[in-house]
Specification:
two-stranded antiparallel ribbon, 30% helix, 3 helices, 94 residues, 3-stranded antiparallel β-sheet
């Protein structure tokens, strides 16, 4: 019999930008609210969420691939101005 230490499992999510799997705690959750992508850093907003590394490169990839409407299952384009501003502010504060 092998003694095994059960480490707490951390849920994995896939970044919609770079498509890499990462722990949920390392990613930023994004939800669609009234036709706009809204950052949800606390992960508490209702609705379907998409996950993104909080890096401008991943946001650029996600926008180029049109990943947000597909991941959030909404029709048509989404406004990403709030999300872009949130990531820019986060980059300057780090």
């Amino acid at each position: 019999m092998v003694d095994r230490v059960d480490a707490p499992s951390v849920p994995l999510r896939t970044c919609v930008g770079c498509r890499e799997r990462a722990p949920k705690t390392d990613l930023l959750r994004v939800v669609a609210v009234e036709g706009a992508c809204v950052p949800d850093p606390r992960g508490r907003l209702p609705g379907r969420g998409a996950h993104l590394h909080p890096r401008p490169e991943c946001l650029t990839l996600a926008l180029r691939r049109r990943a947000f409407p597909r991941a959030l299952r909404v029709a048509g384009p989404l406004d990403t101005e709030n999300l872009t501003a949130f990531l820019a502010q986060r980059e300057t504060s780090v």
